[in-house]
Amino acid sequence: MIKDLIDSDELGEIYFVSTSRVNLGLHQPDVSVAWDLGPHDFSILRFWLDETPSHVSAISRGCIIPGVADVAFINLEFASGAIAHVELAWLAPSKLRRTAIVGSRKMVVYDDTSGESVRIFDTGVIPRRSANTA
């Protein structure tokens, strides 16, 4: 459904996507949170936006097992101009699987842990006219 909304241009230009995939999870000694949880969000973003990131930056920390990241914040930039922020953690007080897609016409929240998994906000941003363009 979200792919159709993006492809039909109903959301308008995609400004940014923000994802949170966190919970108080099982720490794994041989794989980081980025390798364990990240592929889900990366493949979803690749599918929805139909492009791979042109730039990636990340920061992570191993809080419980030294050297094995259990929290990571990953930022992606795409050639289309869209940006994305992916938050991954095994150290969160509650399970959250939430993605917000912000477009110029509409916004969508996809929450895999909610009874209403897809919610469309019929809201965009209408820039104010400045005094110089009057």
Q: What features would you describe in this structure?
A:
It is a single chain. The protein is of the alpha+beta class and 134 residues long. The chain has a single domain (2-133), classed as 2-Layer Sandwich (Dihydrodipicolinate Reductase, domain 2), CATH 3.30.360. It is 17% helix and 40% strand. The protein has helices at 2-7, 33-49, and strands at 14-24, 55-61, 71-77, 83-89, 91-103, 107-111, 118-121. It has a 7-stranded mixed beta sheet with strand order 2-3-4-1-5-6-7, covered by helices on one side. The longest helix is centred in the first third of the chain and has 17 residues, at 33-49. It is globular and about 55 Å long. The termini are far apart. The mean pLDDT is 92.
Secondary-structure topology with pairs:
Blueprint: H1 2-7, E1 14-24, H2 33-49, E2 55-61, E3 71-77, E4 83-89, E5 91-103, E6 107-111, E7 118-121
Parallel strand pairs: 1-4
Antiparallel strand pairs: 1-5, 2-3, 3-4, 5-6, 6-7
